[in-house]
Specification:
Two copies of one chain form a homodimer. With about 350 residues, the first copy, chain A, is mainly α. Chain A has a domain of about 140 residues: Cytochrome Bc1 Complex, Chain D, domain 2. Chain A is about 40% helix and about 0% strand. In chain A, strands 1-2 form a two-stranded antiparallel sheet. Chain A is globular, with a radius of gyration of 22 Å. The interface between A and B is large, with 42 and 42 residues.
Chain lengths: ~350, ~350
């Protein structure tokens, strides 16, 4: 009896479990799931924008600007205010709240900046093709940072260290940074905010990277059909029909209708346990409830409490390793820097 | 001729200049100026609170809580929102602005958290004896973080990683963190936010740490009498009569009257070029204007434009080296974490 148990254990360790995992990796890949590459060159290909190439100097400058509240009209709100790198890249409130405590007029929730580079489009209605374009939006939006392009340009050009950093990053002694340049370097920094997780290790071939329970959750996740929208490297990021808008339980929160075809960008599931509340309107705070609602309204399937628990367990493996961020010391304002305007 | 020049140079390098600096160091010390000690043990003595001793674990936990907006009612405002470590430890606006975009009712400006440990009292009216007590204020103040003690305790105790970190920091497996404990570890972190500068190197004996122009500025600073309030390690921090309240040019901004005796805490001059606007009401944006007003209203002396320029040059040497802060990854909320309340 003891011998048999031992044999089974060995078989299980080196045999069945391994075969089962290989099968699961294949199954996951066949379902459209893709890892963040563990090869740096391959990753670079994936996150770079040839029209705005990633360089160390642009990343360093973009990081400073990402954290600089002086880009906003009030001087109090930075990119990091709503996309807080300490809290999963989000603000943790249901509705994005900015200048003068105004809320997003459609009651939209701030999506995470982590892995945003993997989204096919930006914003919930996908109106922006890339991060360079996206970064220009919130800086100018009245209920967000509420700044004019002119304000941003005046601020940057009034601070010699910023002007020097742009000249250095673009290797041009006559460089005079514009609003677009500010958005570009912020976007470059954001492109580096990818968070490889144990899930990626698994898909990259490390069978032991996931626990048995997480593998079980991944299976349920695939079998229930969640992968029909949450796929690719981003586990989301494509525009999808969202018929639930207007019909599901919390649809009366906000008046968002998606893009002109009613399509809505699928949010990433990476770091999802760090980014509550959920959905475009931040209406649901419990991930299991969110999983069940999505099954019912998007897939037309019932997801039991036990199945939701398993999927949640799998989601734990999607919490990724964040890039190490040294909090920047920003260069001081000068007498030429526009004064912040709280009104 | 060449030999004589050489002799003079040597004399100047090892003789006159050195004597002059020694004299200036003596003069500065006699005027009540003190450096941040370059000896770590001595520094520790100066910044530690025996009732709440500094430990690495408390610093690490305090840093996380300092950056955690979930301590606030809205979930959007952290200690760092108004005392931003990226911008000299301040918010860069004239009047502190918090929950629901409310302004400080007395139009008070957020003082810097850097070197706050060297202040003899905390808050502009000195009502708080130390950072442990001070840290409890803004978390609860309606126009700041607007939280109740109960909210803070519920948040912390709903996040297992925080509870574990407290148990670990206090070496007590049954530790149940209270509001006071939260303020205590934040205060410990703040005690470490000291910024030694070239000015300190100079007072600690390195004659070459200041330029000749900065030494000249330091002399003017002493001779004009600025040291009568801006002295000690903090270059400020004591309660002083502020007769200018109510009489000077910008006195009509805000209704702050100081403590019950009309005394006002002298702000530190460390990192002063990074912490505009100036004065308790943030009324002045130009450091030279601030210097001149202080001479006229506090000391009854006229400070010329040239003298103000020299003092400003000296102030440049007060910009200190900030502690390296790795931006924290905060533990995720749970279903037990109170939802933020934006209203």
């Amino acid at each position: 009896m003891k011998k048999m148990a031992l044999t089974l254990t060995i078989f299980s360790l080196f045999g069945i479990s391994s075969i089962a995992s290989d099968t699961l990796i294949e199954k996951a890949k066949n379902a459209g799931l893709k890892p963040i590459p563990d090869n740096q060159a391959e990753l670079y290909q994936l996150i770079d924008n040839p029209k705005n190439p990633i360089t160390e100097k642009k990343v360093a400058l973009g990081k400073m600007l990402y954290f600089d509240p002086r880009l906003s009209k009030s001087g109090l709100i930075s990119c990091n205010s709503c996309h807080n790198l300490a809290t999963g890249g989000v603000d943790g409130v249901d509705v994005a709240t900015g200048h003068k405590w105004r809320s997003n007029p459609h009651h939209l929730n701030s999506p995470t900046v982590y892995n945003a580079v993997f989204m096919q489009k930006q914003f919930w209605d996908g109106r922006s093709p890339d991060l360079e374009d996206q970064a220009q939006g919130p800086i100018q939006a009245a209920p967000e940072m509420a700044a004019t392009q002119e304000h941003v340009e005046k601020v940057i050009n009034s601070i010699p260290a910023y002007v020097e950093a742009f000249k250095d990053a673009y290797n041009d002694p006559n460089f005079k940074p514009t609003f677009k340049d500010v958005a570009d370097v912020i976007a470059v920094f954001e492109r580096t905010l990818v968070t490889p997780s144990r899930y990626d290790d698994f898909l990259n071939g490390n069978d032991k990277a996931l626990t048995e329970e997480e593998k079980e959750g991944l299976k349920v996740f695939i079998d229930k059909g969640c992968v029909s929208c949450h796929n690719g490297v981003g586990l989301g990021g494509s525009m999808q029909p969202f018929p639930a808008v207007g019909t599901y339980k919390y649809a009366n929160i906000g008046d968002f209708k998606g893009d002109k075809n009613g399509l809505v960008k699928t949010p990433t599931l990476r770091n999802i346990l760090q980014t509550r509340p959920y959905f475009h309107n931040g209406a649901v705070w419990d991930i299991k409830e969110a999983i069940k609602i999505m099954g019912e309204t998007q897939l037309g399937v019932k997801i039991s409490d036990e199945e939701a628990e398993k999927i949640k367990t799998f989601f734990g493996a999607l919490t990724g390793k964040k890039p190490e961020i040294r909090y920047p010391e920003l260069p001081a304002s000068t007498n030429d820097t526009p004064k912040p305007d709280l009104h």
